[in-house]
Amino acid sequence: MSLHNFVTIIASPRSRVGKTLLARMLADFYLHNGRNVMAFDLNADDPTLTQFLPAHSTVAEISDTNGQMALFDRLVADDGVYKVVDLGHKAFRSFFTVAGEIGFAEEARRRSVAPIILFIASPDATSVEAYADLRRLFPQAALVPVHNEMLGSAQHRDKFPVPSAGPVLIHLPALTPGLRKIIERRPFSFVDSSGAAPLDVPLDAHIELQRWLRRIFLEFREMELRVLLADLQSSLQVQAGS
Amino acid sequence: MVKPTVILVGADKGGVGKTTVARTLLDYFTAHQVPVRAFDTESPKGTLKRFHPDVTEIVDVTAIGDQMKIFDTLGSADAKVTVIDVRAGLLSTTLRALNDIGFIESAKKGQISFAVFHILGPSIASLDEIAETASVVGDANYFLVKNFVNNATFFEWDPATYNSYFRKIKGAMEITVAKLNEMACEQVEVASVPFVGFVANKNARGEAANYSFVLRGYVRHWLGNVWGEYDRVKLMDLIAPKAEDNIRQAAG
What we know:
The complex is a heterodimer of chains A (242) and B (252). With 242 residues, chain A is of the alpha/beta class. Chain A contains eight helices and seven strands, in the order E-H-E-H-E-H-E-H-H-E-H-E-E-H-H.
């Protein structure tokens, strides 16, 4: 089956691990590549993603069936739009409970949409357990651990195993405090800053930001290719078996 | 070998979800490629017929002509399973009528399989129904169904009282039908299609529909759980008893 687009869920049961930053960068990665993108902010208390990307994001709510329909029906639509979900830690359990119950990952696959879960790894038992649960409950989704260097240098690779075929760990390099201050302005798009340096950003900071961004975009590109390759391999195996 | 099977779905009280359970049964047998037919005794309205028009006929189960239509055709009908959705208040009456025409006796002899799905309501009156039907149910496979689909809480039930009633019927088994998401339930009602049709995103004419994926997911999950209960009580063994059961029966 050929995959038409991706729906990526940025998840962690912990707060303040860099989910929104990763969601912003992924949305900008798609925009940078000329693709249609829509991001969903599931942080009802503090929807910061919509402040950074007002034109390409919306606040979502899944506490009632209407909200669930508004979100999941759009996520599985094969409409050529790449979707990014910034899943707040408070909505983590309910999101995956609903997703499991309604067969979200299976339906996405049926509609040629690749479901990807970018899981921000942290060494605490809650995260390790949640990762293992997702691996068991969503075998149709590509589960990709993300190592955010800003959380520390430890890799915890053994606690977040990846399948032999498919995407490997994504590495999110740390940013210097000066650059962090720049990217925390709202609204802020990495894509807008990828050309000439904005007047209020020093040239050296701009160059450093570009270098950092290129590394992340390269990781996203590799992840996409690995997802497509894994899909191709499984299609070939099915064909060989039939 | 497939035996003609009659399943009576009833309660002596309205609004406990009899038709919902009858619908899940029709879907269950259809999914197992067992030809099925249904009789809706809610004359003249017929809720079950609205969802399964191709296999359902509206009858008056107290009328002799309609009793003949149902029971005299058991052996000759293409459908091996007959589901009868008994109107509220008629379960005991229907069972007595079946006793009078010798149907329950035939079931006892193993010529046909007979099962009663007794849908229980949340009030203590439901327990009295068990006692009442127990006296006329004979050797039928008796399933007591706790139906939570319309949000029943069974709040009036004392477990000890319930168990004392439950034990009155030899071999009675309990089935639990979980609650279905309210909006999903409502949408299936509006669509007037079988649950499996809704899950498959088909309208009443079998054409592609545009139901919410979320609601379809909820229905699929719920229906899977209900069918899981039917598998647990080995419902399919009613229709095609295993060889060892046949041997045991032949050996008396």
